[in-house]
Amino acid sequence: MNQDAALALDLPRGGLYAVADGMGGHAAGELAANLALDTLSQQYLDGRAPPPERLAEAVQAANLAVLRHAVGEYVGMGTTLLALLVDRGAAIVAHVGDSRAYLLREGELHRLTDDHSWVAEQVRLGNLTEEEARHHQWRSVVSNALGGEERVRLELFGLPLRAGDRLLLCSDGLSGVVADPALLDLLLRPQTPDRVARALINAANDAGGPDNITAVVVDVLHDQRPPHYTLPVRQGDGPLYVDVLLSAQRGSSPLTYVLLILAYFTLLGVMLMPEYRVVIGLIGVTLLVGVVVAQRVTRARLGRPPPRPAPIRAAPAPGEPREARKPFS
After folding, report:
1. Which keywords appear in this protein's UniProt record, sorted alphabetically (predicted)?
2. Residues 163-172: pLDDT tens digits?
3. Domain edges within the chain
4. Any idea what DSSP says for residue 309?
5. Which pairs with CB-CB distance under 8 Å and at least 24 residues apart come from 57-62?
């Protein structure tokens, strides 16, 4: 039974891409993976918050959807979730579990995510080597997944993109059997994303194909201006609860601190000099509006020239990626 699922959704300024690797018997893993991606895409499209917050909220909605369906024969089901949002000249990654994201840039392969698993933790502690972890009997035991608790724990971070970048999202059916040097060789091929994805899946099957294999390849064709918000910074403590991440994201902008300071001194001036409260209030409001307008003008200037059309070319493997598994080699 195939318990992987993939998403490739075109958006006006880029796209939303994701991989989910479900777990649980009686088709529970398949249900969890597809339910998570359906909810992720719908909640993101319906959201109104800035993209980083909207993506985190969509992951939380996916988590609740999986958790609430885990009843009866589906008790205990869960899924990993790795989502990549491409928005103009930036990418935002939301990560839960052990599916992986890679960036190929200027001939070098960079692994963007760390596995949320027991063996990955042992590697970080120095108790296992990467090769030992690859063959360990507990290599498939994840320490974090959707459906485990009401508040999801995730990593959320952003990075600027450049023309020529190639991104890979994959389940551990690929990364668990094809080593990084082989991934680099395959991703360096000057082929379309769908052909590269097919080559990656074939390589995993040639290496034994012990698990479902899903790969999504995204090519960045043009440079784009940066988005009009602060990219989330990766935290060094691993996955955090979604409410903690959202609080940090909403309060991390320098503009937030400037506005708070201006508002504080405006109120202080009104309290200390009430006879001038109208003048002080007008000055304070003018400064607040001026800061907001100046920031938007600056970002608009930094963003020139205007964005080119069709910045992203992306595709999963031909047909449905979730059907690419060992029995169909």
Report:
1. Membrane, Transmembrane, Transmembrane helix
2. 999 999 999 9
3. 4-251+314-328, 254-302
4. S
5. 57/242, 57/246, 58/83, 59/83, 59/94, 59/96, 59/146, 59/152, 59/154, 59/242, 60/151, 60/152, 60/242, 62/35, 62/36, 62/37, 62/146, 62/152
Task: Please give the average per-residue pLDDT across 151-157, as a whole number.
Answer: 96
pLDDT in tens, 219-278: 999 999 999 999 999 887 789 999 988 887 776 555 555 666 777 788 878 788 888 888
Those residues with Cβ within 8 angstroms of residue 63's Cβ, 6 or more apart along the chain or in another chain:
36, 96, 146, 147, 150, 151, 152, 242
Give percent above pLDDT 70 in the chain. Answer: 83
**119 pLDDT band (50/70/90 cuts)?**
confident
Amino acid 142: pLDDT: 86
> What does the pLDDT read at residue 87?
97
Q: Which amino acid is at 114?
A: D
Question: 9, 83 in Cβ contact below 8 A?
Answer: no
Q: What is the rounded radius of gyration, in angstroms, for the C-alpha atoms of the chain?
A: 22
> Pick from 227, 186, 19, 188: which is nearest to 105 by CA?
188
Give the number of other Cβ atoms within 10 Å of residue 76's Cβ. Answer: 13
Look up tokens 């972890």; give the residue.
Answer: 133
- Give the C-alpha separation, 199 to 20, whole Å: 20
The fold adopted by the segment(s) 4-251+314-328 is Phosphatase 2c; domain 1 (3.60.40)
Q: Which two structure tokens, joined as six digits, stand for 261? A: 């300071």
Place of tokens 């304070």: 284
